[in-house]
Amino acid sequence: MRKLWIGLTYLVFFLLIAAPLGKMAIGAFSEGFGGFWNALTRPEALHALMMTGLVVIVVTLLNTLFGIMMALYLVRANWINRRLKGLLNSLVDLPYAVSPVIGGLMIVLLLGPDSALGAIFEGIGLKIVYAIPGMIIATLFVTFPLMVREVMPVLQEIGSQQEEAASTLGARGWTIFWKVTWPSIRWAVVYGVILTVARSLGEFGAVLVVSGNIMNKTQTATTLVYQDVENFNVTAAGGIALVLAAFSAGLLLLMEWTKRRKEVQ
Amino acid sequence: MNSLLRHKGWTWGFRTTILLYFVVLIVLPILGVYYNSFSLGFGNFVESISDPIAWKSVLLTLKLAIIATLINVFLGTMIAWVLIRYHFIGKALLNSLVDLPFALPTAVGGLMILLLLGPGSLIGKAAAALGFEIVFHQPAIVIAMVFVTFPFVIRAVQPLLEELDPSEEEAAYTMGAKGTRVFWHVILPSMAPGMISGGMLAFSRALAEFGAVVLVAGNIPGRTLVSSVFIFGEVESDNPVSAAAVSVILLTLSFLILWLINMLQMRGRRS
Amino acid sequence: MHVEVRGLNKHFGDFHAVKDVNFTITKGHLIGLLGPSGGGKTSILRMLAGLETPDNGEIIFHGQTVNNLPPQERGIGFVFQNYALFKHMTVFDNIAFGLKVKKVSKTAIRDRVMELVELTGLKGFEKRYPHQLSGGQRQRVAFARALAPEPQLLLLDEPFAAIDAKIRQELRAWLRELIERVGITSIFVTHDQDEAIEVADEIMIINQGQLEQKGTPWDIYKEPKTPFVATFIGESTLIEDASEVKGFKGAGDGKPTKALIRPEYIEVGNLHEFKMASATEKGVVKHLHFRGSEWLVEVEVNGHKLVTYRSLEKETLQPGQDISVLVHRAYLFNDERSWIQENNLKEDPMPIFI
């Protein structure tokens, strides 16, 4: 009985994860290492990877900052009414419930060339949809809950007494945050950063809708994979996908390591 | 300088910035979708929805998401059980591999499935010889959904099993209960909350999934066109109102599920 | 620091946690805020510290209203119930925190911290982290940390609640001595009356958000101002109708009046032990408990069960024995007032003048 269950588990993992991964790796090298290298060094591939990198950096920075502050407010702020806090708290999870495509659609509807806001921005020469700003906004939307949800439980667990103690000892806002709060939440923040990087690296639906997937302009690594598949260029798609998968696996390892650090704390 | 920094205006401005960021980024777009789909009147909304391609895509999505969820509840519970209760070689590795579908870009997941099961592959050929097709048909969509929602149930059930007091089980055995009986009456009920909440999360994610599905589905209206892909198509063909109408249905469904999960968790915390 | 509080009120939602509290505290005194859990003691303390904002009322330190001052500027030290030590800092860094914030020079910080480490008996533990210390040691670190910036007022929230009973006793004496030596005005919150009586110069009894009575432990014990204080402090037995007790007939001038009787108000013994036999009443010994230094005697009188103590020097009583009981005085109260009354039969009806 026991052996059967373990065997079944291995089988599921093999079929669902190992086999597809392996097959993709083989596919990426089906034209030898040269084919893999060519797929990666195509100008559009390099540009797409650069775009992905840019989006990841900007989004991670913004959402880390705002996510930590939002978590602090939702847990600590006494200037927000309790009911309002409950409402805000449940609103944080909304992006989880929204399909990325719909997330992208929202931004097109709100800021697209046909919308009032979009027209205003276009008037001052700022293109949002089918350009970088839109892609960043879409990814910000999708990844917003990650940091907040990592930091909030830690803040709740440590309680506010250490911070109050610091304030009775004469410390003010920033000093309290850096000297008292930060050391307790830093591993949760690191974990949140990894999650945000992983998610923004892999974001596809929202970006595809918002970016218009214009080669060498708004194409990211994931939307390039999509386009390669649509063009039946499976080897090239496999090359890019393999790089993305390797990156994700690295992030996963980092996550495991951080999780252990978090538990030690 | 210091007194300038401590001025109340700064605090106020800071707080407003954070809350505005939140409202503009999260709340406003969602309201925007609802607003847009009803902007041309309710009649127009109904018209968009009564387009057979639209409502069939919603029904198909629901059907496939339910199948994928059921598969995942079963597989996930089994794997959670094996990973907690048994010790074997490679356990730690499997345990960290569980999260891979979360870490992997969904488009990469879709590509992986496409390559493994596609017409050119070994499995694809074998299936074709047997007379049924996988990729570009419904089974592929289900597989893609199972893949991207794989971790949910496992991660929801594991902590419950870890907490389950072995003495409870032992007590049942000492009272002469047989293995299967203990499983149905002691173990399963304590795993149930995780199976339900994990299953609901998986379901809502499966409803919303786009990246993995768009690559493996044939996207034939009425047969393999799921709603998220339908929405994408409508946006591409510059028909945002119809896209918004289907989005509203999908969104409302997801919000309901999210709300249900919240309610369940709150009840769980109270009891 | 001279502390004055006027008309203090605080609501948490619909819950009226602190109701119109007024008091003044003389410089250098050690005050115990005593009362049942959830009575509003901690809220008062937190408002004094500036961690909570009063709905209305005034808090005055040294004749200056501090309502609008944040905790940082009130010049107070606060010791939290669970100490709230900075868990990622060593003992040294914990104590030095308040001084570092004030930008005191490094050598001055060193000197002050070492002085406090010495004073609190923590020498040799400076490099440890809070999780490497025992409960009592953490408590001492919390004191040292609060005292380091030389506050004018020390506030302590249930300082001994998280410590073993045995060490608690020791720490109480230590705290009392330490505060005396430093000479700082201090207020501590406790729900333990022994603790308040033993440590405090003055006690304030807080119940359901109200200040019931303020005074020295002896005054409060001797003359409780409200029925709550009378029941809360010391042991006592409640008698629903005071006039049923011999010697208290007509108490309350005909109004229904209740009586609280403390063990030391009662004398029991064989009839010959009493000088004033006419004031005594018949009773039966129900139970005897040996209490190490005396007997605890439960007697039944007219269907009421009373409790008292009896010296080991006197004749030993037996359960079931008929004895005489004299109630010297009782704490009486009705809807209008409360007062202490002596047994009116004890006044000798025929005084003999020599």
UniProtKB/TrEMBL annotation, chain A:
Q: Which residues form the ABC transmembrane type-1 domain?
A: 49-253
What domain of life does the UniProt record list for this protein's source?
Bacteria
Q: Where in the cell is it found?
A: Membrane
Keywords of this entry: Membrane, Sulfate transport, Transmembrane, Transmembrane helix, Transport
- Matching CDD domains, A to Z? TM_PBP2
* Signal peptide positions (record): none
Q: What stretches pass through the bilayer?
A: 48-75, 87-112, 124-148, 188-214, 234-255
Instruction: Give the record's membrane topology.
Output: Multi-pass membrane protein
Query: Does the keyword Cell inner membrane belong to this entry?
Result: no
Main subcellular localization, coarse class?
membrane
Gene Ontology molecular function terms on file: ABC-type sulfate transporter activity
GO CC term, one of those recorded: plasma membrane
Is Transmembrane helix a UniProt keyword of this protein? yes
Function field: Part of the ABC transporter complex CysAWTP (TC 3.A.1.6.1) involved in sulfate/thiosulfate import. Probably responsible for the translocation of the substrate across the membrane.
The record's section on PANTHER family has: SULFATE TRANSPORT SYSTEM PERMEASE PROTEIN, SULFATE TRANSPORT SYSTEM PERMEASE PROTEIN CYSW
Its subunit composition reads: The complex is composed of two ATP-binding proteins (CysA), two transmembrane proteins (CysT and CysW) and a solute-binding protein (CysP).
Report what the protein is called: Sulfate ABC transporter
UniProtKB/TrEMBL annotation, chain B:
Instruction: Mention one GO molecular function.
Output: ABC-type sulfate transporter activity
Keywords assigned? Cell membrane, Membrane, Molybdenum, Sulfate transport, Transmembrane, Transmembrane helix, Transport
Q: What is its main location?
A: membrane
Q: Where are the transmembrane segments?
A: 12-36, 57-82, 102-122, 134-154, 182-203, 244-264
Its subcellular locations are: Cell membrane; Membrane
Q: Which residues form the ABC transmembrane type-1 domain?
A: 58-261
Calcium listed as a keyword: no
Q: Which GO terms describe its cellular component?
A: plasma membrane
Report which superkingdom the organism of origin falls in.
Bacteria
Q: How would you describe this protein's topology in the membrane?
A: Multi-pass membrane protein
The protein's role, per its UniProt record: Part of the binding-protein-dependent transport system for molybdenum; probably responsible for the translocation of the substrate across the membrane.
Q: Indicate the quaternary assembly.
A: The complex is composed of two ATP-binding proteins (CysA), two transmembrane proteins (CysT and CysW) and a solute-binding protein (CysP).
Query: What is stated as this protein's family in its record?
Result: Belongs to the binding-protein-dependent transport system permease family. CysTW subfamily.
Q: What is this protein called?
A: Molybdenum transport system permease
**Species name for this entry?**
Paenibacillus etheri
Automatic annotation (TrEMBL), chain C:
Going by the entry's taxonomy, the superkingdom of the source organism is recorded as Bacteria
The record's PROSITE patterns line, in alphabetical order, gives: ABC_TRANSPORTER_1, ABC_TRANSPORTER_2
Report the enzyme's class at the first EC level: translocase
Q: Which UniProt keywords apply?
A: ATP-binding, Nucleotide-binding, Sulfate transport, Translocase, Transport
Does the keyword section mention Nucleotide-binding?
A: yes
Q: What is its EC number?
A: 7.6.2.9
Q: Do you know which Gene3D superfamilies this protein is assigned to? A: P-loop containing nucleotide triphosphate hydrolases
Which SUPFAM superfamilies does the entry mention?
Answer: MOP-like, P-loop containing nucleoside triphosphate hydrolases
InterPro entries found in the cross-reference section: AAA+_ATPase, ABC_SmlMolc_Importer, ABC_transporter-like_ATP-bd, ABC_transporter-like_CS, Mo/tungstate-bd_C_term_dom, P-loop_NTPase, Sulph_transpt1, Transp-assoc_OB_typ2
Q: Which GO terms describe its cellular component?
A: ATP-binding cassette (ABC) transporter complex
Please indicate if the UniProt record lists Transport as a keyword: yes
Database matches in SMART domains: AAA
GO MF annotations in UniProt = ABC-type quaternary ammonium compound transporting activity; ABC-type sulfate transporter activity; ATP binding; ATP hydrolysis activity
Question: Which residues does the UniProt record annotate as the domain ABC transporter?
Answer: 3-233
Known catalytic reactions: a quaternary ammonium(out) + ATP + H2O = a quaternary ammonium(in) + ADP + phosphate + H(+)
This protein's assembly is summarised as:
The complex is composed of two ATP-binding proteins (OpuCA), two transmembrane proteins (OpuCB and OpuCD) and a solute-binding protein (OpuCC).
- What is the protein's given name? Carnitine transport ATP-binding protein OpuCA
Source organism per entry reads Paenibacillus etheri
